[in-house]
Write a structure and sequence with these properties.
alpha+beta; Immunoglobulin-like; 7 helices; 24 strands; globular; Purple Acid Phosphatase, chain A, domain 2; 2 domains; binds fe (iii) ion; binds calcium ion; seven-stranded mixed β-sheet
């Protein structure tokens, strides 16, 4: 169904009119992200045939104009701002519109039009004014959405929460070739080239549950390893599988970062330059919360003792870093701002100390970068950060941890709190287990679950309430979500307080 400029501008083509002709270009949905008090990023990609092997989504070799609109209601009765951008063939017809001139702390609706078709409508929000107290915030965070491991029901349940903000902490896609006996096999070989990565994003983003979660709230995203390659660290690979020359590895990283930027609602400041991408950044929810979004992959030192789980003295070397020196200095500067009541670190890998009685630890997590962790914890203590809260993905199970000044002395003070959001699908259905592995020697590890789902944080000036939202199954569609466990973190009292 064709939509004229006149009907689009007049707002007569609402969400009900989503044509499904073979030429329909909005099969990958819409998204918004990185909100500010006066602006937000709007995203879409034109791809009538998202699974085409050339990664170009069935689009012609030409740039294509895309109209966009923002309104205060989903009927688009009053369009606040609008414009036209070019979806470039060179960008696989992805667009990142920075919609400016918006009011702070406001709800908006947006949509796109191209080639006579109108997209679905998305809802988004701006943040409160920089110095405003602002409303309370409901924020969801999640990670590890392996298409092969299950249905994206948890994304659907996230959409149903109508939250103000959604964080995705990495492993948005997985890079592997199709595996046998999985719920929904990947298309094609292990992804290596830019067309491979673009097609993989196309396959993931065709999922209606994923699209619903994007369309309901602004997202703030950071990648982890599988968005590039399993357990890589900076310029180093974990293993040589598949074998790649150094030049091929650079090409792969470059392709992965480029496709990540192309397919997520990031600001143009995060557009990759060559084989690097600027992803660590801060977002201010007025004076309530500051989000320090970290990149613990791109700048980290090589895995200690070749990675894996082991006893490893090298992990204690003071020069080792999981952030790199520049990001560490930037984070410490951020701690000194004291802008919000809550300082929230959105990052990828297990932060709390978790060595077993023989000293075995996960070299891919902060236990492999102990001096780096100590500098950051010391950094927030020295700067008297009132409420440091670390949000974590990666591990495919849910955890809640008290962060200790000294992990070898359980009587040392609790100096922060860590919430680990399990996975959206990775690991499959899981089990009802809630016995905390290793708790006997690490009593600061307070909660564990092997179910899939996400975390919900309700943040007020007085308290952060964390709800572990879990599903009993993902290998079949339709699981309901329940709150398995809740904790409170009262203002000024780091650590977990059971509800
Ligand atoms: Fe993962
Ligand atoms: Ca990971």
């Amino acid at each position: 169904m064709a939509v004229t400029r006149r009907t689009f501008v007049l707002g007569l083509a609402g969400t009900a009119l989503v044509p499904r002709s073979p030429a329909y270009p909005f099969r990958l949905g819409v998204a918004s992200g990185d909100p500010a008090p006066d602006s937000v990023v709007l995203w879409t990609r034109l791809a009538p045939s998202p699974l085409d092997a050339d990664g170009q989504g069935g689009m012609p070799h030409a740039d294509v104009p895309v109209d966009w609109q923002i309104a205060t209601s989903p009927t688009f009765g009053k369009v606040v701002t609008s414009g036209t951008v070019q979806a470039r063939y060179a960008d696989a017809h992805t667009v990142h519109v920075v919609a400016n001139g918006l009011r702070p702390d406001a709800e908006y609706y947006y949509r796109f039009r191209a080639r006579g078709h109108v997209s679905a409508t998305g809802r988004t929000l701006t943040t409160p004014a920089f110095d405003a107290r602002g409303r309370d915030l409901t924020m969801l965070f999640a990670c590890c959405s392996n298409l092969e491991s299950g249905y994206f029901t948890a994304y659907r349940r996230m959409a149903e929460e109508h939250a103000d903000l959604i964080l995705h902490l990495g492993d948005y896609i997985y890079e592997g070739a199709a595996k046998p006996n999985v719920v929904r096999p990947h298309l094609g070989r292990e992804i290596l080239t830019l067309p491979d990565y673009r097609r993989r994003y196309g396959q993931y983003k065709m999922d209606p549950d994923l699209q619903a979660a994007h369309a309901v709230a602004p997202w703030v995203v950071v990648p982890d390893d599988h968005d590039v390659e399993d357990d890589y660290s900076g310029v180093f690979r974990f293993d040589d599988l598949p074998p790649l020359t150094p030049a091929q590895w650079v090409t792969r990283r470059t392709a992965a970062y480029r496709a990540y930027y192309e397919h997520l609602p990031l600001r143009p400041a995060s557009a990759p330059v060559g084989n690097s991408i600027q992803l660590y950044r801060r977002l201010y929810w007025g004076r309530l919360a500051t989000f320090h979004m970290l990149d613990t992959r791109q700048f980290r030192s090589r895995l200690a003792c070749a990675g894996g789980w082991k006893v490893c003295r090298e992990a204690d070397q003071p020069r080792r870093s999981i952030t790199g020196a520049a990001q560490e200095a930037w984070l410490l500067d951020g701690f000194a701002e004291h802008h919000g009541t809550w300082d929230i670190l959105g990052q990828q890998v297990f932060f709390a100390g978790r060595l077993d009685p023989t000293g075995v630890g996960n070299m891919d997590a902060w236990d492999g970068y102990r001096a780096s962790r100590a500098r950051i914890q010391r950094g927030w203590q020295d700067r008297r950060v009132r409420n440091p809260v670390v949000l974590t993905g990666d591990i495919h199970t849910a955890w809640a941890n008290d962060l200790k000044a000294d992990y070898t002395d359980e009587r040392s003070p609790t100096v922060g709190t860590e919430l680990i959001c399990t996975s959206l699908t990775s690991r499959g259905d899981g089990t009802p287990d809630t016995a905390v592995p290793g708790q006997a020697t690490n009593p600061h590890l307070r909660f564990y679950s092997d179910r899939r789902g996400y975390c919900r944080a309700r943040i007020t000036p007085a308290q952060l309430t964390a709800d572990f939202r879990t599903l009993d199954f993902v290998k079949l569609p339709g699981a309901p979500v329940t709150t398995l466990k809740s904790f409170a973190i009262p203002d000024g009292r780091p650590g977990l307080h059971p509800l």
